[in-house]
Request: fold
Amino acid sequence: AARTLLDQHRPDWALQACDTAAGIPSARLQGRKLPVTARVIGALDDRHAMMELFSDVARMPFPGGQTLTVEWARAFEEAGRPELARELFENALNALRQRQSQQPDLLKAWVEFLIRHRDHEAAEAALVKDSWIISGDAAPLVFALYRDWGRLEALDAELPKLYLPGGVEQEVRFLAKQHLAGKAPAGNNAGR
Reply:
């Protein structure tokens, strides 16, 4: 309901829907707060409420909730607060490292976020460190990174530092070759 009201440019009503959902008794530790709440508060331009919401989300046992971190980060980003999304991603990734655990979807979303925000060095560093965790998604991400960074022509110098499996490296080269030939591959818009 909150999304529909927000899409109809009724953020006050959308906030009431979010507050109602959050007030429903729940056995879940993080309660019923919904990621759309960040977008609603962003539409209301209430900086204090945004920081309060972010504080609640960041203090969950796992930042953003075990399964909702990516949704929360995207909601903060869509609300015009990419710095909060970045902090949430970083906190969640640090928590994973401390637990010696992995969440491929979280890492993929982090790299896409970095590419979207043109933080190419950080995206490359994340791929150098952890591309093995997301090997199935590594080729489109590496391609998107170097395409958006303007370094497709320098793949021979860039790819060795990533230590990608042979098949993944070949796929990156194929995607780059197609792109440089003017045949942009469909479905490889990571980060866009």
